[in-house]
């Protein structure tokens, strides 16, 4: 059970909620804040004060006063009119994350919703009824309006949801779980949709999977390192301490641990004086990607606990502002794209070193019968294609802006596009690393499995249960997808082989 307070939610808790389907509840103190804030909204309505989003229209209609008898209709109209998302649905885990994040921001006590709204959101999370939300249609300011409107529809008993492995009508799922829909009252529709929870939820899932993929890249490349008889001196602690980047130092330490008892590694000068950069500079390149992940995690955890709707209701004032603007997460997601794309970029170059006979002493393309059988030749092509695609997806979404709402909302973040592309880059990068793993497993067989370190040998044996040795050309697409699924499956468990064996998780 994860207790939501509005200010203490962490990535680790989100792992529990998303990977283990942990239940959530609201702290008593946070619910008291919700109640107190709601009283202020009701006073505004009763006194017919002119306050944006409570007794006025939205966006360019902010100067249109809404009478007391129409405030509920205003909120309903807002949700149904803004539910115009298009395209494929967000992954179900993203939808679950959006419910949790939207609940958490309301528990800060600045949004002005009734406690029942928070309670219904928590009921959806705990019943695993997750809104079916189209991915496209958000500008990332005034928040993720279209995606969050599809989330809000579910509270009204409308739209569709993920339920027990299927997409069904909301009313069907609610009825089976004994959850009744509600009607929205003053401020509540706006409070539900004015925020950055779509881009942040997508970013949280991308980070969780990206963190595990970064660990996996170290283990996979360690097998490559053994296959190519890499020079272990490049991981010497003194070398990395001399530069000073913590992430680089940590990466080098993990490689020393992974390769500590390997018989396949070499010392400086034994075979070569220096390796190529894709081996020699692993700590520097991977370490820089870890710097990116560190930055992204920090920004996500701030936003996970942020008040991002508008207006915000304080003890002595109602203030309209722009906390819904997604620029901080837009930048973070564009940065994430670079860090993860680079893990794939250097991986593809290691694949080339494994398969190119001009760069190693292994059989050409790791073929069992060079010439008659192509071996891993075209797997490198596939990796190169994915890396090239990543380069186009890595173009920053945050540099673009198109005015909306009759130029009232004249600068937007495009952060949700950045988050979506970040997740796509992650999927591509996982496939590249799957290809490296297939090639590294084959190469280390030629080198001599008996010489592997104990950690890499255990990983070799696990992976060989997923993909067999290449004795004959076959449809390698099947192998790539099986290994990709294996790696993704490790990302979706709380304690992976890597965390338990190497990193003390």
Uncertain runs:
none
For the sheet with most strands, the description reads: 3 strands, antiparallel
The helix/strand series, from N terminus to C terminus, equals: EHEHHEHHEEHEEHHHHHHHEEHHHHHH
Report the portion of residues in β strands.
5-15%
Alpha carbon gap, first and last residue = 20 Å
Number of domains: 2
Number of helices: 19
Into which percent range does the helicity of residues fall?
A: 55-70%
Overall shape: elongated
CATH topology of the largest domain: Fumarase C, Chain A, domain 2
SS elements, strand count: 9
Q: Could you tell me the radius of gyration in angstroms?
A: 26 Å
CATH architecture of the largest domain: Up-down Bundle
Strand order of the largest sheet: 4-6-7
Mean pLDDT: 94
CATH level 1 name of the largest domain: Mainly Alpha
Protein name: Histidine ammonia-lyase
EC number: 4.3.1.3
GO molecular function: histidine ammonia-lyase activity
Subcellular location: Cytoplasm
Overview of the structural elements:
This protein is mainly α and 505 residues long. It folds into two domains: 2-195, Orthogonal Bundle (Fumarase C, Chain B, domain 1); 203-501, Fumarase C, Chain A, domain 2, CATH 1.20.200.10. Helices cover 56% and strands 5% of the residues. It is built from 19 helices and nine strands. The chain has helices at 11-19, 28-46, 71-82, 92-106, 115-126, 145-155, 170-177, 188-193, 197-227, 237-243, 246-258, 277-280, 282-304, 327-355, 377-393, 415-447, 454-464, 476-491, 497-501; strands spanning 2-4, 24-26, 86-89, 130-131, 134-136, 160-163, 166-169, 312-313, 318-319. Strands 4-6-7 form a three-stranded antiparallel β-sheet. A hairpin with a 2-residue loop joins β6 (160-163) and β7 (166-169). The longest helix has 33 residues, at 415-447. It is elongated and about 85 Å long. The chain starts with a strand and ends with a helix.
